[in-house]
């Protein structure tokens, strides 16, 4: 099932012969729903409790379309955990080893400021703080495009650096000292430009600087990390433990930003976190899913020791019905933290009525109209 959310939100339901069902949310985006259905032949007739073997069976079947295959697998794997939890009467975090915490700290991704001016960034910072968030993240890429000397060469001009610094300074002043501020660069800068930007942003006590350079080159990421005291964070476009192995083992970054729905699912994300914990690297969760996927991510965040913060896609607030989509025994959000459900499985169900109102053209509610 695919809904018209902030992006295309994709959902999976698995069913057993004895009538149990499990739900999961795949990574958002177009084309994922079709891939989910292609995995059906890999799964029908299998014992759904064998989650890790089934995961590897799907990885094998997805080898020619890796990233989108993993986006689909994340939803299916989550649905298998939901199913197993329900069949055993325990929440999924219990099956992942148990929970370290009941509530998941969130950061609000506020995107750009209200206009890329110091006052615009200050205003957005004030709004985030007024809404109760203790941690907010801005996107600094494309915030000074009018000063660019070349559209594609990754270089930051002195004028761009000066403007970007003034934006962050304004946000810090408006937010006050007690608020965590992070900055996302979206992989757009050259190594030396990233180092210059980090140097200028050092006085503002950032929680992390994300993807200052593209994540394809571990040595470049390591060079930026070594040059600054700001924690360098990356990972939302890396897949499975294989994608994180070199980054973690060479300690080329200071913090991971793992997308549970996109990297391969709940158990794979937990394993990535555990690998990072061997190097005392904290685990943050990237997240652009609806509250169903957020709940799955929250179970992982509850069950990893080195968790630090989870993304609340604040700009998805424009999807007014998003919290109505999730049915849970208690509120999922309390005091701007995400409450990990204690009910069996994920502890959350999809409100079919709300879902039907927002179906993508050509999609249906798990085979029913
Ligand atoms: Mg990012």
Automatic annotation (TrEMBL):
TM helices/strands, residue ranges: none
Entry keyword Transcription regulation: no
Residue ranges of domain Mandelate racemase/muconate lactonizing enzyme C-terminal in the record: 118-231
Keyword entries, A-Z: Lyase
Alphabetical GO biological process terms: amino acid catabolic process
One term of GO molecular function: lyase activity
Any Pfam family hit: MR_MLE_N
UniProt-recorded name of the protein: D-xylonate dehydratase
Species of provenance: Geodia barretti
């Amino acid at each position: 099932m695919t809904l018209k959310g902030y992006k295309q939100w994709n959902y999976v339901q698995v069913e057993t012969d004895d009538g149990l069902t499990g739900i999961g949310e795949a990574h958002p985006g177009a084309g994922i729903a079709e891939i989910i259905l292609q995995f059906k032949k890999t799964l029908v007739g299998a014992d759904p409790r064998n989650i890790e073997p089934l995961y590897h069976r799907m990885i094998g079947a997805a080898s020619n379309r890796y990233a989108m295959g993993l986006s689909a697998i994340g939803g299916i794997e989550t649905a298998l955990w939901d199913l197993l939890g329900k069949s055993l009467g325990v929440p999924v975090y219990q099956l992942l080893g148990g929970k370290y915490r009941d509530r998941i700290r969130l950061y609000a991704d506020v995107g750009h400021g209200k206009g890329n001016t110091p006052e615009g960034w200050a205003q957005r910072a004030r709004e985030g703080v007024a809404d109760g968030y203790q941690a907010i993240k801005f996107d600094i890429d494309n915030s000074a495009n009018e000063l660019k000397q070349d559209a594609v060469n990754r270089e930051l001009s002195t004028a761009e650096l000066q403007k970007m610094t003034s934006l962050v300074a304004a946000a810090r002043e408006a937010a006050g000292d007690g608020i965590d501020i992070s900055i996302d660069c979206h992989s757009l800068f050259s190594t030396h430009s990233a180092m210059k930007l980090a140097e200028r942003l050092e006085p503002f006590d950032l929680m992390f600087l994300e993807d200052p350079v593209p994540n394809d080159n571990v040595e470049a990421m390591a060079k930026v990390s070594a040059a600054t005291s700001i924690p360098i964070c990356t990972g939302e476009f890396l897949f499975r433990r294989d994608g994180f192995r070199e980054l973690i083992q060479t300690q080329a970054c200071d913090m991971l930003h793992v997308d549970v729905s996109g990297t391969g699912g709940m158990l794979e994300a937990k394993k990535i976190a555990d690998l990072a914990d061997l190097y005392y690297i904290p685990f943050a969760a990237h997240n652009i899913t609806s509250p169903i996927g957020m709940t799955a991510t929250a179970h992982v965040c509850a069950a990893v020791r080195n968790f630090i913060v989870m993304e609340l896609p604040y700009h998805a607030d424009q999807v007014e019905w998003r919290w109505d989509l999730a049915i849970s025994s208690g509120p999922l959000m309390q005091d701007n933290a995400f409450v990990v459900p204690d009910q069996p499985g994920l502890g959350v169900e999809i409100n079919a009525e709300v879902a039907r109102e927002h179906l993508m053209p050509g999609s249906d509610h798990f085979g029913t109209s």
